[in-house]
UniProtKB/TrEMBL annotation:
This is Putative enoyl-CoA hydratase echA8. Pfam families: ECH_1. One of its GO terms (molecular function) is enoyl-CoA hydratase activity. The lineage of its organism: Bacteria, Pseudomonadati, Myxococcota, Polyangia, Nannocystales. Belongs to the enoyl-CoA hydratase/isomerase family.
Length: 265
């Protein structure tokens, strides 16, 4: 498949997706959103078909200045409410696809992650940031609000009070502050960003793929449920994995003092 706005690279067990619109600091237009949907759909199908050659998605921005500097303001200025509704629906579908992807999705935030860019990063499972990264929800400066899940995902990550402060001031924060408030999981030197993410995917690749998919699903779904229902979800997923060959292999390998060979079955 060829893409106009994305660069795709498979390296070891990682699929690296770079958003590549350097003239607009990788801003999200309809083409980017549509192409991200295609990439995520294809990857989900691949994993669901039992092809575990890709064990993690790394989403980043091309170049060294921006992850994504927001939704494309020039494109949005021209939209009527119907078009804005379609854009919003497509954007939210990408968020759902990232959450439902049966492998971890890591945002490697290499520069500006503003507006829709911050929202896209938060739609990934977690964020690894370069020391040069800057985060913010500056939509109010354009007299709109976050429209790609930002108000809700930011609140869940950093708490209501901090989320409100960021959304009403439009203030940009640096990577160290994003780390401090729990928006980013780690901050690393710019030249270490990709290797750090590749290292995380390599660690995941040693684990049973069914367990990884189950862990991600239970964590995401459970976060939206009352504790009792969430715990029930965990019990069922935990028990379900005992029907897999990988569970036997993982435990036998431990007892045999050898490395396991997982097959995703
Ligand atoms: N859209 C379009 N072009 C952009 C852009 C953007 N968001 N951000 C930057 N650019 C373009 C600039 O216009 C400029 O183009 P030329 O003038 O060279 O043609 C080029 O990128 C370089 O930008 P600057 O010259 O401004 O570079 P600086 O280093 O001076 O400043 C900056 C970098 C990131 C601080 C600045 O560019 C900036 O403030 N950009 C806008 C950031 C922003 O307000 N972002 C929020 C947009 S609102 C949704 C999805 C998302 C959203 C809503 C719905 N659905 C899918 C549901 C969210 C809305 C937003 O994101």
């Amino acid at each position: 498949m060829s893409y106009e706005t994305l660069e795709i690279e498979d390296r070891d067990a990682a699929r690296i997706v770079r958003i590549n619109r350097p003239k607009a600091l990788n801003a999200l237009n309809q083409a980017v959103v549509a192409e991200l949907s295609r990439v995520l759909e294809a990857l989900t199908e691949q994993v669901q078909a039992g092809d575990f050659s890709v064990r993690g998605l790394i989403l980043t921005g091309a170049g060294d200045k921006a992850f994504v500097a927001g939704a494309d303001i020039a494109a949005m200025r021209e939209m009527d409410p119907d078009q804005a509704m379609r854009f919003a629906s497509q954007g939210h579908a990408v968020g759902e696809m990232l959450a439902n992807l049966p492998i971890p999705a890591i945002a490697a935030v290499n520069g500006f992650a503003l507006g829709g860019g911050c929202e896209l990063a938060m739609a990934c499972d977690f964020i690894i940031a370069s020391e040069k990264a800057k985060f913010g929800q500056p939509e109010v400066k354009l007299a709109v609000i976050p429209g790609f899940g930002g108000t809700q995902r930011l609140t869940r990550r950093v708490g209501l009070a901090r989320a409100i402060e960021l959304c009403v001031t439009g203030e940009m924060i640096r990577a160290d502050e994003a780390l401090r408030i729990g928006l980013a999981n780690r901050v690393v030197a710019p030249e270490q960003l990709l290797d750090t993410c590749l290292g995380i995917v390599a660690a995941v690749a040693k684990m049973g793929p069914l367990a990884i998919a189950a862990a991600k699903r239970v964590l995401h779904q459970g976060a939206e449920l009352p504790l009792e229902a969430a715990n029930q979800l965990e019990i069922e997923a935990f028990a379900g994995l005992f029907a897999s060959a990988d569970q036997r292999e993982g435990m036998q390998a431990f007892l045999d003092k050898r490395e396991p060979t997982f097959t995703g079955k």
